[in-house]
Amino acid sequence: MKYLLFSIFTVLLYNICFAQHTNVMISNEYLPEEPTIVINPKNTNQLIAGANLKSYYYSNDGGVNWFSDTLFSSYGVWGDPCVIVDTSGAFYFFHLSNPFFGNWIDRIVCQKMQTFGGSWNDGSFVGLNGTKAQDKEWAVVDRNINTIYTTWTQFDDYDSHNPNDSSIILFSKSKTQGNSWSTPKRINKIAGDCIDSDNTVEGAVPAVGPNGEIYVSWAGPEGLLFDKSLDEGNTWLENDIFVDSIPGGWDFDIPGISRCNGLPITACDLSQSPYRGTIYINWSDQRNDTTDTDIWLAKSTDGGLTWNSPILVNDDNSGNHQFFTWMTIDQTTGYLYFVFYDRRNYNDSRTDVYMAVSKDGGSSFINFKISESSFVPNHKIFFGDYTNITAHNNVVRPIWTRMHHNQLSIWTALIDVNAIGIDNINYSPVSLEQNYPNPFNDNTYFPFKIRKTTNISLVVFDIFGREVARLINNETRDYGKYIENFNPNDYSLSPGVYYFSLLAENKNIVRKMIYVK
């Protein structure tokens, strides 16, 4: 009994100290990067995600398990994925094009899944304008009227250095649930170049206000600018509103990353919190130094007419890089959630994933680590241009790209909102899940994860603490998820209660199982 109590205590201690935000690998197939994710507010167990170039993933258990497939459209599927969900529970997957008959990225494509788990239609498109390139779209639903708004960048000629070629921000809407689109409307006043760098206008992410206002910001030669429409996108401000200069520009270098941007994300609080109607813009830049990228937030409480000075989101004093930020708002609480890559704990290119939350309208932030182990990117392998995050009713799911031994994968974390603020930096090197099936009458399986290369042992013992099987004996295992098979008949065991234990670096995780016949 004493040993049993100790075992239970060990498991409880593990869960409290090391398992606040369980990491789940969504996929490592087809070199996934640049991920997107959305939660269905009507059923928070339903999540859809996507990644470059044409992969999509879905989970019906809140992100614990994922199924994957590839997207097809006669208009072509060519990256920059964005998934959203409307008020009926229909999902939409926006992406760039690569049609059989046409030009590379000559339109923005929207494919629809009418019901969760169904198939995607061939899609509709918007923005086709001769040979001009349509790039970096994002979309949002006005949940008052179920209208979809999308904004993007149009290039006269992508990557052109000709001063006569320019880039502009376009807007379109669909009042037919993605079946048809309005004629694109230019909303920015000052055009950018076509080089796809600091002087190009990029990063248009639309947001909807409490009364159907449409808000959008972008970065370009004039810094960070903002525009809005009060009539469903029919008219926009005569002049764009200046928010911040973004010192150093939105296109900058991060060691180990093939290219990196600090493009803005716009969101508006629709909750019943005291901050309802506040507009937020989140971005990153290198105003403090080219070796010290930071995450920033600007906010407006008067409909975007005026903006506060930028607020620092990351709370470290390391002088290291934080980059590739994304922001969302839990519209049931008004809490702001951010996800970004972070190197505060290292003096090299090792990279963690952090989140931040603000519960007071962007006045203060709690930073917390969510990745279970660091990784080292390789600048020769494209890493994508963004992360993403979704939240509703205290269900929060970030998504990010990870690289391990030059292998790309995309991950989420099961955020425990009650554990935010608890120190979770020093994760256990291993985690052990419950065996399945349990109880069992034949084979059962022990799933476990290794968070860094380490020596492990996997042992089965009886109720009296006597070892009855040793499946792994002090073996060196690399980072990854493993599933070990156990057949009690191989060890001539009798039915009863048993325990299995995973040992690594003085950590001993014990779980109970029941063998029946």
Structure in words:
This protein is mainly β and 517 residues long. It has two domains: 2-12 and 428-515, Immunoglobulin-like (Sandwich); 20-414, Neuraminidase (6 Propeller), CATH 2.120.10.10. The chain is 3% helix and 45% strand. The strands form ten sheets. A four-stranded antiparallel sheet has the order 1-30-29-28, with no helix packed on it.
Any key phrases for this structure?
517 residues, mainly beta, Immunoglobulin-like, Neuraminidase, 2 domains, four-stranded antiparallel beta sheet, 1 helix, disordered N terminus
Compact overview of the structure:
With 517 residues, the chain is mainly beta. It contains one helix and 37 strands. The longest helix has 17 residues.
Strands, helices and their partners?
Elements: H1 2-18, E1 22-27, E2 33-40, E3 43-52, E4 55-59, E5 67-70, E6 82-85, E7 91-96, E8 108-113, E9 124-126, E10 133-142, E11 147-155, E12 167-174, E13 185-186, E14 207-208, E15 214-220, E16 223-229, E17 241-244, E18 251-252, E19 260-261, E20 265-268, E21 279-285, E22 294-300, E23 311-312, E24 322-330, E25 335-342, E26 352-358, E27 366-369, E28 388-392, E29 395-404, E30 407-414, E31 430-432, E32 444-450, E33 454-462, E34 467-477, E35 480-486, E36 496-504, E37 507-515
Antiparallel strand pairs: 1-30, 2-3, 3-4, 4-5, 6-7, 7-8, 8-9, 10-11, 11-12, 12-13, 14-15, 15-16, 16-17, 18-19, 20-21, 21-22, 22-23, 24-25, 25-26, 26-27, 28-29, 29-30, 31-32, 32-35, 33-34, 33-36, 36-37
Number of helices: 1
Which class of secondary structure composition applies to the elements? mainly beta
Distance between the termini: 25 Å
CATH class designation of the largest domain: Mainly Beta
Chain-averaged pLDDT: 93
Described by strand count, sense and barrel closure, the largest sheet is: 4 strands, antiparallel
